[in-house]
């Protein structure tokens, strides 16, 4: 417990220190007018802005995680139509996908029942998985399937991206875990997304699984057990 706690704080300070170093460095360059063109100055200001956004996300994610770990997250359960939630999330990321030339395809099986869930958190889960799929895919498409059987409702998000090496699969839901840390600086990840997703899924009684093949693609599946007739 102590070790993971120490590790956690070490990770936080590392993750905060890096963007703060950029903020300080570039702010100083601009302040001391150590640039030759206006374009160069704009580039530095843009970095300062991006790093600010990054710190904001990190702090939000950490806050969310801390609340969940203290059991202080209050879910607001309602009857949710996952088709609507999926469509809404897909809408939100469609610009990002389009910019990368990725096709986003949604498949719904018939008669998807409403489920008891927290609609906002559901969207957060789906957005996180979609953002990853887009971020870690260079070409091809992303397929979202919503499928139900008599006892389960499952949502899968499948991409044709870089994939995850098999020996790293067990760790991807860990806080701050990311593959090839140096590369993700440019893509902007902090490795908190999936740990939040997993907690949110489990808080709502679901489970999450991943399968992946390097250079072929990755598929995340979120599953919820539907109440049986007797329980209703
Ligand atoms: P953020 O906190 O902004 O979400 P992140 O995307 O790096 O940062 P996670 O979403 O937790 O962090 O994902 C953890 C790691 O798992 C990623 O850094 C990436 O290496 C790998 N990963 C996640 N989703 C995919 C995917 N669809 N394809 C390939 N690798 C993935
Ligand atoms: Mg992510």
How would you portray this structure in words?
- The chain is α+β, with helices and mostly antiparallel strands.
- Helix content is 50%, strand content 19%.
- The chain has helices at 2-31, 38-69, 82-99, 119-135, 181-187, 193-203, and strands at residues 78-80, 103-108, 115-117, 141-148, 152-159, 207-213, 217-225.
- The strands form 2 sheets. Strands 2-4-5-7-6 form a 5-stranded mixed beta sheet, covered by helices on one side.
- The mean pLDDT is 91.
- The structure holds adenosine-5'-triphosphate and magnesium ion.
- Adenosine-5'-triphosphate (ATP) is lined by residues 132-133, 136, 159, 161-164, 172, 177-179, 184, 189-194, 218.
